[in-house]
């Protein structure tokens, strides 16, 4: 039996399953679907009624960012024989986890009051309970800190990516269907970095300037980082066959940190400092190196785009907006 349970997600991981094509049909023929709101007309009560631990594979997609997704994560754990964090959001907090740069109040103020396109003169914010005459309306309550799935419940397997690469999804489903799942705690992905899978040529070149992707057309054969574009390949787990750098797009880091480093941003800073460090060898002083580093736009959002909740920082403490 298979269930796919959404948390704070964009449903992109969900749709990636449909990209499996004929393999998706094979999987659907081989399993009973216990719950999958995107594709099957089953209600949450149907899942709740099943005995605990009776669903062979539960894919939980998305981060945990409100009291409803927190309950869904706990329900997923109760019903699952094997619980899989499916996609970067479930594995590391993902894009929704960037809300951790602000407090709950700061996020709500920005989204509902201070955004330039918002007209909200009374500063009305979403509230868990709203009374309209005799009616009561409730909505989920946003948490102060966005969490990855394993910060709420125990997770058996991790299938990273945004969305996860099809080959890894197919491998994981094949292992589950054949009853040959790897040891619990396994991350479906490579033990190496994206750079190890990338065919671009690295020449040990110095970074003279950090450029943004829209500013020039990079050489299609040379390492993007050595051309001055921030490419997260050195700090990111492989398993995606370096699909983005192959298509001339820098790696954004959606496979999460490499196995030997738990903090993706710190690993990237270290990789970057060794490339810029070559400048020091070239006789540049601290001030010149600082000027190069200051060209990085939004360092936190670049280095922790997918992994802020699972990083050592976890959130920006004391941030208000
Ligand atoms: S990992 Fe990416 S595709 Fe999947 S839910 Fe999160 S943002 Fe969407
Ligand atoms: S930094 Fe990016 S472009 Fe360079 S080798 Fe690594 S993955 Fe490829």
From TrEMBL:
Which keywords fit this entry according to its UniProt record?
Oxidoreductase
Extract one GO molecular function annotation from the record. Answer: oxidoreductase activity
Indicate the segments forming the NADH:ubiquinone oxidoreductase-like 20kDa subunit domain, all copies: 10-175
Q: What is this protein called?
A: Oxidoreductase
């Amino acid at each position: 039996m298979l269930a796919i349970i959404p948390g704070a997600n964009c449903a992109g991981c969900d749709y990636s399953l449909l990209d499996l094509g004929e393999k998706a049909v094979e999987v659907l023929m081989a399993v009973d679907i216990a719950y999958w709101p995107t594709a099957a007309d089953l209600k949450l009560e149907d899942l709740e009624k099943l005995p605990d631990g009776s669903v062979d594979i539960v894919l939980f997609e998305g981060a945990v960012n409100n009291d409803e997704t927190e309950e869904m994560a706990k329900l997923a754990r109760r019903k699952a024989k094997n619980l899989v964090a499916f996609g970067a959001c479930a594995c590391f907090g993902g894009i929704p986890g960037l809300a951790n740069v602000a407090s709950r109040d700061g996020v709500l103020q920005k989204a509902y009051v201070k955004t330039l396109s918002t007209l909200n003169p009374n500063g009305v914010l979403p509230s868990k309970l709203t009374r309209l005459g005799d009616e009561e309306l409730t909505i989920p309550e946003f948490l102060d800190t966005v969490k990855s799935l394993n910060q709420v419940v125990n997770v058996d397997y991790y299938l990273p990516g945004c969305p996860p690469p099809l080959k890894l999804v197919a491998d994981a489903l094949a292992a589950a269907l054949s009853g040959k799942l790897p040891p619990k705690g396994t991350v479906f992905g490579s033990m190496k970095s994206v750079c190890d899978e990338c065919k671009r040529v690295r020449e040990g070149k110095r970074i003279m300037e950090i450029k943004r992707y829209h500013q020039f057309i990079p050489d299609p054969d040379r390492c993007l980082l050595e051309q001055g574009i921030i490419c997260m390949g050195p700090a990111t787990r492989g398993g995606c066959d370096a699909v983005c750098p192959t298509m001339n797009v820098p790696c954004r880091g959606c496979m999460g940190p490499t196995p030997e480093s738990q903090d993706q941003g710190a690993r990237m800073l270290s990789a970057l400092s060794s490339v810029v460090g070559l400048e020091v060898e070239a006789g540049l002083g601290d001030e010149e190196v600082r000027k190069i580093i200051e060209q990085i736009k939004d360092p936190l959002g670049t280095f922790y785009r997918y992994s802020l909740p699972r990083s050592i920082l976890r959130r920006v403490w004391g941030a208000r907006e």
